[in-house]
Amino acid sequence: MPDLGIDKSSEKSYNFNIEKARSDAKTLLSNCPETKCSKIMSEQLNEATFELDLKMGDPFSISRKTGAIHYNPSHEDFYKFDHSVAILHETAHRADIFLYHAAENDEFSQAVLDSVVHTNRDSIVNAYIKSSPEIQRNSYLSDILSAVTENDERIPFIASHENKYLLEEGNRESEIFADLFTIESMSETEVIDFLKNTLPDLYASFLRLL
Ligand SMILES: [Zn+2]
What we know:
Blueprint: H1 18-30, H2 36-47, E1 50-52, E2 60-62, E3 69-71, H3 83-100, H4 106-117, H5 121-129, H6 133-136, H7 139-148, H8 163-166, H9 171-185, H10 189-198, H11 200-209
Helix pairs in contact: 1-2, 1-3, 2-3, 2-9, 3-9, 4-11, 7-9, 10-11
This protein binds zinc ion.
């Protein structure tokens, strides 16, 4: 093959523009009512730095050391994602890293553990299966239930993390916090009501962290 001069290290070769993705995420957020959480999310989104990382095993991730959002357009799942949805999730991680430290908060960590160990999994699964399409289309809620039910096979998750990853120290707390923070900052009232009904102690503990 002749060298065609395509720079594989640049995002241009993947037809992806991170600044457009950031501005789409801002638009999504600006369509939501302004609250304390949405303001913080908006500030974090403005301050976020992005790093192209073609070697990582995920389409998006965050560096817990620097708070930079890493993205990998060469990942096979990258274009399956709604990039605004993914960027808001990573931005919520950034808020956690710089402001909230959810995994180090004893009360929140205990509430997360209790939500896995002590809640009635059948009742959560049944409530979810019977819930509205709007609830079932919410990626953040799907990801929370993936963590809380340890990927219960009866739920058709649209976003999830593997159990192996969730069991590593602090990961379950961080993922649940990021998802709750995004839901709260977007004022997803139907999803918030679902969470308050099915996981009331977890939601109350999250609100106390803010
Ligand atoms: Zn995450």
